[in-house]
Amino acid sequence: MASVPETSPTVQVIDDKVGAALHTMRLRAVDAYPTERARIDRGHMLALSGYVTLHDDGTAMVLSGSLPDTWYAVNGHCVCRDYAVAPHGRCKHRWAKALLTKAYTHLHQRSEEPLDDTACPYSFPETFTTFAATYIGHGEHINGVARKVDDREFYFTPEGLDTGGLCDYSEVALGPGIA
């Protein structure tokens, strides 16, 4: 069942710099997950077309590529039909959110421009310092909780464990914030 908010998000304009970063993230994803190339490519097109709206709490709304005016709420899950059969639930909507978040993160962390001038995937409200998250570094995908240490680091604790470790912002995919 698709999730449609009371007011539908609008299609975003993706500039050339973000488009280039999206292309880089797509290449990295295909390199890491070659068997998922078709979903990655479709997610890339959704993101490049501006069909992803990122929210401050780490969630996103992604416009369906096949159902006009249908937006899916994506946080660590998606309610599209493909989610149940995609490897580890990585449907094109989740790939679109992940690629765009990674692209903005890449630009934010590696740009020579002042940080105030560089797009950021989402800000970190003072009320959100802890997030449901998936560790995605080193080709692993481990669900757990990420606690913000600073703008570049998180302390990630895998589900079912009491201890974890520090990781870079680029190594975690943040889900909803935990107040």
How is the largest sheet built, in terms of strand order? 7-6-5-4-8
Count of DSSP H/I helices: 3
Alpha carbon gap, first and last residue: 27 Å
Major sheet summary line: 5 strands, antiparallel
How many beta-strand runs?
8
Low-confidence stretches: 1-6, 115-119
Helix fraction, binned, reads 25-40%
Q: Strand fraction band? A: 15-25%
How large, in whole angstroms, is the Cα Rg?
Answer: 15 Å
List the main descriptive attributes of the protein structure presented here.
single chain, disordered N terminus, 179 residues, 3-stranded antiparallel beta sheet
Overview of this protein structure:
This protein has 179 residues and is of the alpha+beta class. The chain folds into 2 domains: 95 residues, no CATH class; 55 residues. The chain has 3 helices and 8 strands, in the order ααβββαβββββ. α1 crosses α3 and α2 crosses α3. The longest helix has 19 residues. The radius of gyration is 15 Å and the shape is globular. The two termini are 27 Å apart.
